Amino acid sequence: MKTVSFTQMRDGTREDYEFLGRLEQQYIDKLPERILAALQALDDTLSGYQVTRLEHSLQAAARAEADGADDDMIAGALIHDLGDDLAPENHSRYAATIIQPYVRPEVTWVVRHHGLFQMHYYAHHYGLDPDARERYRAHPHYDACVKFCRDWDQASFDPDYPTPDLDHFAPLVHRVFSREPWQHAADA
Q: Which domain holds residue 168?
């Protein structure tokens, strides 16, 4: 079988859906390679900074790694801006959606909210509230997001920082994005 027999999903057979299930699993198994390719594509995007978005992402992950963060949080630091190309107005949620099935809820929450928390450092230049993150002060992951932005994200625009290349993080990407997925609420 090369294609399914149906033109409307309701007409599909068990054989059709078993065939599609096998193809879908093969596609899912290649997710780490697609993540690495998407990260590599950040090398040629949004200009104006002293580093590329890829270098920024690598620096954030390297800082997390140097800080002793676990695989989940390092992966979060690495992919936190992956949505910049396709979802510039909600890149944080985009990246959180990608990583959610593979990491603990804290990391998903941090990645999902880092855009708002990061504004603490520059919102005043746009006449916006730099303390908008305060509405989450009581949230159990508030401090983790503050640390993520303060220590790793906002500090990772330095062309002189000793930044490892993407190959350094490839094994981590394979470990994290090859895990058996589990579900949790993004706002848990």
A: 12-177
Closest by CA to 140, choosing from 167, 114, 174, 110, is 110
Tokens of 124: 């005043």
How many whole angstroms from its chain centre is CA 132? 22
In this prediction, residue 183 has a pLDDT band, given cuts at 50, 70 and 90, of: low
Q: Pick from 153, 117, 152, 38: which is nearest to 84 by CA?
A: 38
**Contact, 36 vs 42, CB < 8 A?**
no
Residue 185 lies in a domain: no
5 falls within a domain = no
Percent of the residues in the chain that have a pLDDT greater than 70, as a whole number: 97
Q: Average of pLDDT values for 66-76? A: 98
Is the residue at 163 inside a domain? yes
